[in-house]
Each structure stands twice: as C-alpha cells, then as structure tokens.
Amino acid sequence: MKKIYSYEPWFFLFLGIFHLHRIWGLIDRKSYATFWIQTMEDKGMFYFLLMGILAALCVAGIITFFRNLHYNYWWRWIYLFGGGYVLFDLFAIATGLKFWHELLLRMFDVTACYWDILWSGFVALGGVVFVLGCILMKRKIGEKNAQ
C-alpha cells in the first residue's frame, strides 16, 4: 500500500526553502556569493548543521525510495536523483575535490553573464519543490483525518 511518510512533506518544504533563498543572489550577487563561498571554505557550525540536515534528508529519501521500490509515488524519483546529486555535492565540498571547487567558484562568479539564468533556475526549482511539499503536506493531513 502506498503511504506518505510524515517526514516526506518536510523534505520537500526544506529543500524548496533552501532553493528559494537564492532569490537573495538575484537581488544582491556580491553578498550572496561572499556568504556562500566563505561558508563553504570556513566549514563552521552553520555549514555542518546545514550539510547534516541535507544529508539526513537525502539518505532518508533514498532509503524510502528503495523500501517502496514496487509501489513508489512518481515524486520519490526525486529522492534518488536529486538526493544522489546533493550527497555527491556534499561529499565533493567536504573532501575538497578540485574540479568541484572550481565549478562552484565559477557558479559564484558575480560577473558571469549566466548568473541570472543559473540562479533563477534554482529559484524556480525551489518554487516547484516547495509547492510539492505543500501538496504532500495536505495529502498527509488528509490521510491522518481519513484514519
């Protein structure tokens, strides 16, 4: 039987908000880029807290995908592909993979002609994921009320 687990709406709401915060990068490129480059390089408490939350949500999502392999909802594929990407990203940042670090520095190049397209894409992704989280929350509440 298909079931929405209680953490699933929160997964999408959190990731949606995480991506939506990039509106800041469209408003003030320099402070946004400076904040995230410094956060990634300093690896302080905020960095580890955020990375821990992201990693835990992605691992939980991937486990959920495989536990429900024969009766998954369509959106659980996001756990597999999106979660896999995020876990690789976190691994690459934490271990300091040179090519990934260079890619991130290019992403945060405030003079790049592709800045608005790149970060608008992340904002749009965040909006879609956040709406999905809201829909799942509504469905989960409906499941609880039906019991």
Walk me through what this model shows.
By secondary structure, the chain is mostly helical. Helices cover 79% and strands 0% of the residues. The chain is built from 7 helices and no strands. Helix 1 runs antiparallel to helix 7 and helix 4 runs antiparallel to helix 5. The radius of gyration is 17 Å and the shape is globular. The two termini are 14 Å apart. The mean pLDDT is 93.
State the main characteristics.
147 residues; mainly alpha
Strand content: under 5%
Shape: globular
Number of strands: 0
> What is the radius of gyration?
17 Å
Stretches where pLDDT falls below 50 for ≥5 residues?
none
Number of helices: 7
Q: How do the SSEs run, as a string of H and E? A: HHHHHHH
User: Main sheet, how many strands, which sense, barrel?
Assistant: none
User: How far from one another are the termini?
Assistant: 14 Å
Q: How much is the average pLDDT?
A: 93
Give a nutshell description of this structure.
This protein is mainly α and 147 residues long.
Write the layout of secondary structure elements.
Blueprint: H1 8-20, H2 23-27, H3 29-42, H4 45-67, H5 77-95, H6 98-107, H7 115-146
Helix pairs in contact: 1-7, 4-5
